[in-house]
């Protein structure tokens, strides 16, 4: 009897160990993975950067993405184009204009793909002369490096 009781106790211990391991794995599977939820501002920046990355920046060799900031909250594509043409004369726009608005309604900015560098220079010079004002707001114009780098933030143009 001692022979059979020894075999039974070992197999019983193995069975208990196996069940404990199985329960431990099930508890790990039921836990929710810890994911940090980004703020609204980070989500907005991520959407804008994804849009910039998805644009075919190499479609035209001289294409430049222009950033226009400090726009009124009620701005749309037509108003932005009319404002820029009023300030800098005719400009050649390629593709879609992306308008980003803050959730709290405080501000608005636009990303405009322009075909040639002359249009960009004209807009930047006109804004630099102080002609770009909407009421109390003065526009901010800059160039985005979205086609070459992952950073979507505007970078100041020097020498224009």
Automatic annotation (TrEMBL):
<dbReference type="InterPro" id="IPR012677">
    <property type="entry name" value="Nucleotide-bd_a/b_plait_sf"/>
</dbReference>
<feature type="region of interest" description="Disordered">
    <location>
        <begin position="14"/>
        <end position="43"/>
    </location>
</feature>
<dbReference type="InterPro" id="IPR035979">
    <property type="entry name" value="RBD_domain_sf"/>
</dbReference>
<feature type="compositionally biased region" description="Basic residues">
    <location>
        <begin position="20"/>
        <end position="30"/>
    </location>
</feature>
<dbReference type="GO" id="GO:0003676">
    <property type="term" value="F:nucleic acid binding"/>
</dbReference>
<protein>
    <recommendedName>
        <fullName>RRM domain-containing protein</fullName>
    </recommendedName>
</protein>
């Amino acid at each position: 009897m001692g022979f059979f009781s020894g075999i039974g106790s070992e197999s019983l211990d193995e069975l208990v160990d196996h069940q404990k391991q199985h329960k431990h794995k099930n508890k790990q599977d039921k836990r929710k993975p810890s994911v940090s939820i980004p703020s609204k501002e980070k989500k907005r920046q991520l959407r804008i950067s994804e849009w910039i990355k998805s644009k075919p920046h190499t479609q035209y060799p001289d294409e430049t993405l222009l950033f226009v900031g400090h726009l009124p909250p009620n701005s749309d594509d037509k108003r932005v184009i009319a404002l820029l043409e009023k300030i800098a004369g005719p400009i050649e726009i390629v593709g879609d204009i992306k308008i980003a608005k803050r959730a709290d309604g405080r501000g608005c900015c636009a990303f405009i793909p322009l075909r040639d560098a002359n249009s960009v220079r004209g807009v930047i010079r006109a804004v630099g002369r102080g002609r770009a004002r909407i009421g109390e707001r003065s526009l901010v114009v800059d160039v985005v490096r979205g086609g070459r780098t992952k950073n979507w933030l505007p970078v100041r143009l020097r020498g224009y």
